[in-house]
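Budget justification aside, the reviewers requested a transparent look at the raw inputs and outputs of the sequence design task funded under Objective 1. We therefore reproduce one unedited record. The lines immediately below are the structure tokens for a 209-residue chain.
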């Protein structure tokens, strides 16, 4: 196929160590390329769910604070780490002379930030309001610890894909289900939509031998 490279060249570009796990295949180059396709399919779902999660929590915290700039509300008692993340997000939001707006600040806050908002650190301050973002669950089933674990697992997968780590070694089908579940916990319609656009199952079926 025109444009295909050799294993030797690929090892020179990405390192022998990085390709070690791909040598199990008859064609390591094909497996490496397919792994990137699988990662892209999973990353697409994570991206949609990340935006859904942040916007849902943002809406609830803004309601409590009475302002979309809830990150400036002292009642949340943000610690040094969180305050630093917010300050950095404001800096990025105002880059190139742009006006710093709440929507831009929220968009600059990382997935890891939102995971930390769901940690035990903010059980008493953030969680009572953030829990309302998960309207797809009955109140009795809105467990902060359970939702945090879900978000942490998805965030870890996101970071792995972003660093071009092997995805085919992960329980990808289960991860796909976890992403759809989290989206459905926020809004059942969103969970259905994300499941309908997923390319993960089709990509898994196309794995090279």
């Amino acid at each position: 196929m025109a444009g295909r490279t050799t294993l030797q060249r690929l090892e020179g570009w990405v390192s022998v160590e990085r390709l070690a796990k791909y040598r199990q295949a008859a064609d390591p180059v094909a497996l490496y390329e397919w792994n990137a396709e699988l990662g892209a399919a999973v990353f697409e779902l994570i991206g949609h769910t990340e935006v859904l999660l942040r916007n849902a929590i943002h809406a609830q915290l803004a309601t409590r604070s009475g302002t979309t700039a809830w990150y400036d509300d002292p009642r949340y008692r943000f610690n040094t780490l969180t305050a630093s993340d917010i300050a950095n997000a404001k800096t990025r939001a105002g880059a190139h002379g742009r006006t710093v707006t709440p929507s831009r600040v929220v968009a600059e806050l990382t997935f890891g930030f939102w995971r930390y908002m769901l940690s035990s650190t903010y059980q008493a301050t953030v969680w009572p309001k953030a829990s309302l973002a998960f309207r797809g669950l009955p109140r009795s089933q809105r467990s902060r610890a359970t939702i945090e674990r879900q978000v942490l697992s998805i965030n870890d997968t996101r970071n792995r894909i972003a660093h071009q780590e092997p995805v085919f070694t992960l329980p990808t089908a289960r991860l796909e289900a976890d992403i759809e579940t989290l989206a459905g916990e926020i809004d059942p319609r969103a969970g259905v939509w994300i499941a309908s656009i997923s390319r993960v199952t089709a990509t898994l079926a196309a794995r090279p031998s």
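The longest helix spans residues 28-65. The two ends are 17 Å apart (CA to CA). Computational costs for records of this kind are itemized in the attached budget.
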